[in-house]
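Batch manifest line 315
LIGAND: FE2/S2 (inorganic) cluster
JOB: complex structure
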Amino acid sequence: MLTHSPELPTQPAANADKTLTGIVHTPVRHFPTYGLLTLQLPAMQMADLAAGRYFLVRCGAQSEFERLHQWHFYTRQPLFVAGIQTLIAPPVDHADSAPSAPTELWTLHLPFDPGQRKTTNPAFQWLQSLQPGAALNLIGPLGQGFGLHPHSRRLLLVANAWHIPTLFTLIEPMLDLGGHVTLLVDASPSPHVPIDSADMVDAADVVTALIPQLPIAVEAHVSVNPAEFEQELSNAIPWADQICAALFPHQHQSLADQIRKHRFRLESGFAQVLMQTDLLCGVGACLACVVSLPSGSHTRTCIHGPVMDLTRLAQ
Ligand code: FES
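JOB STATUS: finished
ARTIFACT:
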């Protein structure tokens, strides 16, 4: 006997169980190193607080009935925020018609495998198959995100090519303040992908795909090897008054070293970093996201991150 309707949701909703129903507005768009999925969600009016935060998305199930019975993707998948756009509600036809609830378009980042131009995660592949109008169940947005300092006007964004979109929502607020934004992208090939592999990422493709996604005022540099990336960092760090980064964990120490080299010390608050860890429960219960800190202690990135000050992550 069915206890829940098998019908698929057709409208965005904030549900009684504190989850959200999102409706696919634009299916996954493919870029060389990531995908972007745009959902229609109930309006949350938190655009200023979204950078570096994530949703846990239930995959393989659309209706409440499917959520109860289909468990081939039993863990929710973390998708980070890459854009928010408020939708203008259509005019109400009749005076006695109820106005439709306000909604927003949230674009979420679907990461590809590091060093590659595709995902092998079956749950992400399921997300790639969704068409407009498909329903998704989400929890979020979760976690501590990036924060722009009130007096910052020269923002340096630093990312590897696979995680650039997690920084996108920082750009417009800084430009709106009259500030400047520089984006440095490390598109170095992964040592794990053979040089002649069809999955190898071409830096020229990254540039071609990236430029149309950025406001014209953003200065972007894409580096094709670690030495070039280090040189770009050397040029930009003295100029910046705040850094927000989405790098692989093994790059955090070298970013800290570069900052010390060019500014003599790494001050708390100067550089924030989006930690890349496994995020399963999002509430501190499963310990999947625990990372070791140079201080010798451990922390749960879902609670105390995923955006953390670089002084906590590097010596
Ligand atoms: S994701 Fe479960 S404890 Fe952090």
